[in-house]
Design a protein that fits this description.
- By secondary structure, the protein is of the alpha+beta class.
- The protein has 2 domains: 10-70, no CATH class; 73-102 and 124-168, no CATH class.
- It is 25% helix and 9% strand.
- It has helices spanning 32-36, 42-50, 129-137, 150-167, 172-176; strands at 71-72, 99-105, 122-128.
- It has a 3-stranded mixed beta sheet with strand order 1-3-2.
- The longest helix has 18 residues, at 150-167.
- It is flat and about 70 Å long.
- The termini are far apart.
- Residues 109-116 have low confidence and may be disordered.
């Protein structure tokens, strides 16, 4: 199983099995990295420019892992392990998110990005806090068939009920007093 730079497990044997489309891929199949960040890797950008900025993986018999700038990061909407959905609490300071970004591999972990066994692409998925802990502190795997932890389910339902309360109607008189006792 792959491990983090500190030696804890990430919960997968091959991060690319869980990776999605490259974050740099545009809707028309071009490489946004080469378009927007040409100065970061001029030779890569020149090669892409010569090929009309076509994505490296767009070539025949090519995969995203063939691109030196491939990156696949999560949208963070749902835990990939147990399916718990995120419920964000706007205007709540200190409210910790239910979902966290979990790295399956780390961009540039091998220094030059080509050290053989070290992954060189950033690949992340969303895990709820509870699954994230289980993956790092045990032999739990990202692709386990898991249900949300009871604590996770309770936290999500608590947020949903608070969210519903915020949508409820109350008049200004109810919220701030009617002002009748001032008279």
């Amino acid at each position: 199983m792959e491990k983090t730079p500190t030696g804890t497990p990430v919960g997968v044997d091959d991060p690319y099995d869980h990776a999605g489309v490259c974050d740099h891929l545009t809707g028309d199949g071009r490489c946004r990295f080469a378009l927007d960040r040409a100065g970061d890797d001029p030779s890569f950008a020149a090669a892409r420019r010569a090929d009309d900025y076509a994505c490296v993986a767009a070539g025949e018999d090519r995969e995203f892992r063939d691109c030196p700038h491939y990156r696949s990061t999560t949208d963070g909407r749902e835990c990939v392990r147990c399916g718990l959905e995120e419920v964000r609490m706007a205007h709540r300071t200190g409210a910790r998110p239910l979902l966290e970004e979990h790295h399956l591999s780390y961009g540039g972990a091998g220094g030059d990005g080509d050290s053989g066994t070290d992954p060189s692409h950033e690949i992340t998925v969303a895990l709820c806090r509870w699954c994230h802990t289980k993956v790092h502190k045990s032999f739990a795997r990202v692709d386990d068939d898991a249900s949300p932890d009871p604590e996770a389910f309770a936290a999500r339902e608590d947020r949903r009920s608070r969210e519903a309360e915020e949508f409820g109607f109350s008049s200004a008189a109810e919220r701030y007093g009617s002002g009748a006792e001032d008279g």
